Amino acid sequence: MPASTSTARALLLGLIGQSIQGSRSPQLHEEEARQQGLRCLYQLHDLPLDTSTGQLSTLLAAMQAVGYAGCNITHPFKQTVLDCLDSLSDDAAAIGAVNTVQFREGKRIGHNTDWWGFAQSFQQQWPQARLEHVVQLGAGGAGAAVAHAILTLGCQQLTLHDADPARASALAARLNQRFGEQRVVVADDVAKALAAADGLIQATPIGMQGHPGLPLPVEWLHPALWVADVIYFPRETALLKAANALGCATMNGGGMVVYQAAGAFRLFSGLTPDAQRMAQHFARLTD
Q1: Annotated binding residue at 39?
Q2: How far, CA to CA in Å, does 25 sit from each of 119, 187, 273, 278?
Q3: Is 278 a member of any domain?
Q4: Are 181 and 242 contacting, i.e. CB atoms less than 8 angstroms apart?
Q5: Annotation-wise, does 263 bind a ligand?
Q6: In the UniProt entry, which residues are flagged as the active site (predicted)?
Q7: In 3-state terms, what secondary structure has residue 280?
Q8: Does 23 belong to an annotated binding site?
Q9: Are residues 69 and 164 in the same domain?
Q10: Catalytic residue selected from 78, 107, 192, 241
Q11: Is 19 annotated as a binding residue?
Q12: Model-level pTM?
């Protein structure tokens, strides 16, 4: 992941999303900056769900004008923001979603550190996980990134399901073009797919603060599944609680958020972050 050439001694950063007041990104970036000898202010830009592409572009222009080094993008704007940018990194272009925008030389450059964050977290927690068949819920911005990650890690068959079947089909087609035909299929019957699966990835907003509930019936889970949820706030979603009660191995989105933040910090600052230090700080924040 290329670093920025800028190593300014002060950083102005932000997060654009909807219902983001519980985000730990400000503390993660500001503390790592302090440890690196930088002054950093990380601001939240909580936008309505119906924010248009034009309004998003106007906000990005304003951020550039006042000297932001860049910003993070979260639900539901990781794909909307694509039309507001001047260029994309190879990873962001392949995934079709952006979670980090770097402002450099008057340009807006889109990156995706989400996939790397998920991959690092997954490998660290489950280096020997079975990846023959994985079912994933959600084909939006986060879903595109984690699907890219799990296929990069060696998943042989990924079954996708999304509330919008056309979105799931479009993501499957894009992934198959990159990873090989029929590596990704769209689920007709999620319960049947799960019964024969090694793992479940939950990449929808269901379960996060402001979107409570379960993304599927508990009866569809079974103890042989590993279950990974990209949500980190709350630390134990209703899905993970149900999976833990069944004896499933589970992982929340905490590791993903730390490693994606580390990747974004490097892009913003040009400095190499201490991911372990950031993980320890995140653990203190969420205790």
Answers
A1: no
A2: 19, 33, 14, 11
A3: no
A4: no
A5: no
A6: 78
A7: helix
A8: yes
A9: no
A10: 78
A11: no
A12: 0.93
What is the C-alpha separation between 226 and 220, in angstroms, rounded? Answer: 13
Q: Compute φ and ψ for 107, nearest 5 degrees.
A: -110, 155
Condensed to tens digits (0 to 9), the pLDDT of residues 83-97 reads 999 999 999 999 999
Q: For this structure, is 107 an active site residue?
A: no
Mean pLDDT within 187-196: 96
Rounded to the nearest angstrom, the gap between the alpha carbon of residue 199 and the centroid of all alpha carbons in its chain is 18
pLDDT in tens, 193-230: 999 999 999 999 999 877 899 999 999 999 999 999 99
d(CA 254, CA 54): 32
CATH number at residue 242: 3.40.50.720
**Region of 213 on the Ramachandran plot (φ > 0 left; ψ -120 to 50 alpha; else beta):** left
| Sheet of strand 249-251, all strands in order from the earlier edge strand to the far edge | 184-186, 157-161, 133-137, 199-202, 226-229, 249-251
Give residues with Cβ within 8 angstroms of 211, minimum separation 6.
Answer: 19, 205
Domain that holds residue 82: 10-113+260-271
Whether residues 233 and 130 fall in one domain: yes
